[in-house]
Design goal:
alpha+beta; 6-stranded mixed β-sheet; 3-stranded antiparallel β-sheet
């Protein structure tokens, strides 16, 4: 009986400690950095259906907010992320840091344009503004997804 009582007390103590820790710890949920209702990300020099050559100069537009390097916690600011041939961020992905890979290019120094090498063919592009920790804002600030076609490079013929 004594062993059983001790086991119950230890189990209850562990559960109480876990509950107390959760209740007293401030958890920062992803996607909680607010964005103004009028904030908008857009492509300055590209539009849906454009045909371009590589490397592609992409200029990032932003209105209603300012650009700041990653790690800068300032109201109404963020930095650009370029999604290349990536699925749109939806659902839980909007509450997590934007991945770092070939499809999710980070511009954490506050860049507002980039020269991007793309293979010939059709590509989709989308801009997503991330907060100081690379998480989309609440309400997400993202451009429309656009499709562009990259022309194959032509080599000059020698005479």
């Amino acid at each position: 009986m004594r062993r059983l009582s001790l086991a119950i007390v230890l189990t209850l103590s562990a559960a109480t400690l876990a509950a107390t820790t959760l209740a007293t710890t401030t958890l920062v949920r992803a996607g909680e950095t607010p964005a103004p209702d009028n904030a908008k990300a857009y492509f300055i020099n590209l539009k849906d259906g454009d045909t371009v050559s590589s490397p592609v100069l992409i200029r990032f537009g932003l209105s209603g907010m300012g650009v700041a390097p990653s790690g800068t916690e300032a109201p109404n600011t963020g930095h650009h992320h370029l999604l290349i041939d990536a699925p749109a961020l939806t659902g839980d992905a909007l509450n997590e840091a934007i991945p770092v890979d070939a499809e999710h290019v980070h511009f954490g120094k506050g860049q507002t344009e980039a020269s991007v090498n793309l293979t010939p063919g059709k590509h989709t592009l989308q801009l997503v503004l991330g907060d100081w920790s690379h998480i989309p804002h609440n309400k997400p600030v993202m451009s429309e997804r656009i499709s562009i076609t990259v022309e194959p490079t032509t080599q000059a013929k020698s005479p």
